[in-house]
Amino acid sequence: MFRILLFLCLASRLPAIEIAGSDILKETLQDIEKLPGAPKASFNGTMPARRALLEDRASIGILFLKENEEDPKPAKGNLFNRYLLANAAAALIVHKENQLTQINLEGLKGIFSKSARYPATNWNDLPGASQSEIISPIIYSPPDSFVQEFFMGLVMNGDEFRTNVKQRLEHITIQENIESRFGIAVIMPVQIPTAGRVMAIADGRPGRSAVAYLPNEMNIYNGDYPLRLPLYIYVRSDKEKELGKILTWLLSDEVAERIAVQGLYPAPKAIRARLSQRLDR
Fold this sequence. Notes:
Layout: H1 2-12, E1 19-21, E2 41-42, H2 46-54, E3 60-64, E4 80-94, E5 102-104, H3 105-112, E6 136-139, H4 147-154, H5 171-180, E7 184-189, E8 197-198, E9 200-202, H6 217-222, E10 228-236, H7 244-250, H8 253-261, E11 264-266, H9 269-280
Parallel strand pairs: 1-2, 1-3, 5-9, 6-7
Antiparallel strand pairs: 3-10, 4-7, 4-8, 4-10, 4-11
Helix pairs in contact: 7-9
């Protein structure tokens, strides 16, 4: 009985958090509390944010939603509205004269994953390839980006990288490799300019689309491009009007520019503008 009372006492002292979110946003949105009327914010990770929403300690949650993962559950009697803030998205960059036009997630796993069912060490190992060239795989995940984490989760199912995958090269070295090495295969943020060619990617898993898409703004937003992970804003429907200015700021060009620096791909400007107009009503 004493333990139960102690737990209830401690739980009642948990700080009220109006905004909770992924820790990757801690630096990007650190000044959100400086906005007029802004409540307390805590960016300690997705799981703490989910818990804060469930326990009714947060009215806004900003978190990534993994594939096949359920939306966070609200406290009893509450409802959430959901808005897409951005996507973590990565591109596959190859030498501009590479003849392969597309690849699927299984092919990417073959190139990068240690325990791939269909390992690919030569471009000829991939369907549709017609050239014999050793693949030189690189993953470039700049500081504060989310590329490596979500690539390992989505494509590799948490597996380790193959020993030949280079992970700690400087950007300038990678660009030199893209220009000079025919067998190069680089996973990197979509927004970074490159001298190589961006390859179209298909999902290709059973029951999924076999159509390959390039990582342009609308393909990423619509979810047609498979190498992406959505970042959503969840807001309690009964608090949406009260927190409207905070939500409008989160959907602003200013925040879009900030999160783009992290390698995230903001929702299209027209979509954000339409959502902001809705919130201003």
